[in-house]
Amino acid sequence: SRQRNVLANSGEQLGISLYQQALKGGLQALARTPTGGIAVDQSADFLLLDLQHPLFLGKSQQQWLDCWVFAGTAQMLAQVWVAGKCLVDNGQHINQDAITQAWQKAWQEME
Hints:
Elements: H1 14-29, E1 46-49, H2 64-71, E2 77-82, E3 85-89, E4 92-93, H3 96-110
Antiparallel strand pairs: 1-2, 2-3, 3-4
Protein backbone atom coordinates (compact mmCIF):
# COMPACT_ATOMS: atom_id res chain seq x y z
CA SER A 1 0.00 0.00 0.00
CA ARG A 2 1.03 3.61 -0.50
CA GLN A 3 2.31 5.57 2.44
CA ARG A 4 1.73 9.31 2.82
CA ASN A 5 4.07 11.74 4.51
CA VAL A 6 7.07 9.41 4.47
CA LEU A 7 9.25 12.33 5.63
CA ALA A 8 7.33 12.74 8.89
CA ASN A 9 7.48 10.53 11.93
CA SER A 10 4.34 8.57 12.70
CA GLY A 11 1.59 10.89 13.94
CA GLU A 12 3.65 14.02 13.30
CA GLN A 13 2.56 16.91 11.07
CA LEU A 14 4.65 16.95 7.88
CA GLY A 15 5.29 20.71 8.05
CA ILE A 16 6.70 20.37 11.57
CA SER A 17 8.93 17.49 10.50
CA LEU A 18 10.24 19.35 7.44
CA TYR A 19 10.83 22.52 9.46
CA GLN A 20 12.72 20.62 12.16
CA GLN A 21 14.83 18.83 9.54
CA ALA A 22 15.65 22.14 7.85
CA LEU A 23 16.52 23.66 11.23
CA LYS A 24 18.79 20.72 12.04
CA GLY A 25 20.50 20.98 8.64
CA GLY A 26 20.94 24.73 9.01
CA LEU A 27 22.51 24.35 12.44
CA GLN A 28 24.84 21.68 11.08
CA ALA A 29 25.83 23.88 8.11
CA LEU A 30 26.60 26.76 10.49
CA ALA A 31 28.46 24.45 12.91
CA ARG A 32 26.09 25.50 15.70
CA THR A 33 24.82 23.32 18.51
CA PRO A 34 21.06 23.13 18.93
CA THR A 35 19.81 24.50 22.24
CA GLY A 36 16.35 22.97 22.11
CA GLY A 37 14.76 26.37 22.54
CA ILE A 38 15.47 29.88 23.68
CA ALA A 39 18.12 29.86 26.40
CA VAL A 40 20.27 32.33 28.32
CA ASP A 41 23.53 33.21 26.51
CA GLN A 42 22.31 31.63 23.27
CA SER A 43 21.53 33.37 19.99
CA ALA A 44 17.78 33.99 19.79
CA ASP A 45 16.79 33.33 16.17
CA PHE A 46 13.07 32.88 15.57
CA LEU A 47 10.09 34.10 13.61
CA LEU A 48 6.56 35.05 14.50
CA LEU A 49 3.68 34.09 12.24
CA ASP A 50 0.90 36.60 11.60
CA LEU A 51 -2.04 34.48 12.69
CA GLN A 52 -4.45 37.14 11.36
CA HIS A 53 -3.36 36.26 7.80
CA PRO A 54 -6.34 34.79 5.86
CA LEU A 55 -4.56 31.48 5.19
CA PHE A 56 -4.42 30.78 8.94
CA LEU A 57 -8.13 31.39 9.51
CA GLY A 58 -9.91 28.27 10.68
CA LYS A 59 -6.65 26.38 11.17
CA SER A 60 -5.79 24.72 14.46
CA GLN A 61 -2.55 25.42 16.27
CA GLN A 62 -1.28 22.05 15.03
CA GLN A 63 -1.89 23.16 11.42
CA TRP A 64 -0.17 26.57 11.57
CA LEU A 65 3.31 25.37 10.63
CA ASP A 66 1.98 23.07 7.89
CA CYS A 67 0.05 26.01 6.49
CA TRP A 68 3.12 28.26 6.45
CA VAL A 69 5.51 25.59 5.12
CA PHE A 70 3.25 24.54 2.24
CA ALA A 71 1.31 27.70 1.38
CA GLY A 72 3.43 30.33 3.05
CA THR A 73 4.41 33.73 1.81
CA ALA A 74 6.50 36.48 3.36
CA GLN A 75 3.24 38.24 4.22
CA MET A 76 2.50 35.47 6.72
CA LEU A 77 5.47 36.54 8.86
CA ALA A 78 4.85 39.16 11.50
CA GLN A 79 8.46 39.38 12.68
CA VAL A 80 11.86 37.82 12.11
CA TRP A 81 14.41 37.92 14.93
CA VAL A 82 18.12 37.18 14.51
CA ALA A 83 20.56 37.12 17.42
CA GLY A 84 17.89 38.66 19.64
CA LYS A 85 17.24 41.62 17.34
CA CYS A 86 14.03 42.17 15.38
CA LEU A 87 15.13 42.57 11.74
CA VAL A 88 11.73 42.31 10.08
CA ASP A 89 8.57 43.84 11.53
CA ASN A 90 5.22 43.93 9.72
CA GLY A 91 6.89 42.72 6.53
CA GLN A 92 9.55 45.44 6.49
CA HIS A 93 13.25 44.89 7.09
CA ILE A 94 14.64 47.50 9.47
CA ASN A 95 17.17 48.49 6.78
CA GLN A 96 14.70 48.28 3.87
CA ASP A 97 15.57 51.68 2.39
CA ALA A 98 19.32 51.06 2.46
CA ILE A 99 18.86 47.55 1.01
CA THR A 100 16.69 48.91 -1.81
CA GLN A 101 19.19 51.66 -2.61
CA ALA A 102 22.12 49.21 -2.65
CA TRP A 103 20.18 46.86 -4.93
CA GLN A 104 19.27 49.69 -7.30
CA LYS A 105 22.90 50.86 -7.42
CA ALA A 106 24.17 47.33 -8.13
CA TRP A 107 21.55 46.87 -10.83
CA GLN A 108 22.50 50.17 -12.51
CA GLU A 109 26.19 49.20 -12.45
CA MET A 110 25.36 45.95 -14.29
CA GLU A 111 23.55 47.77 -17.09
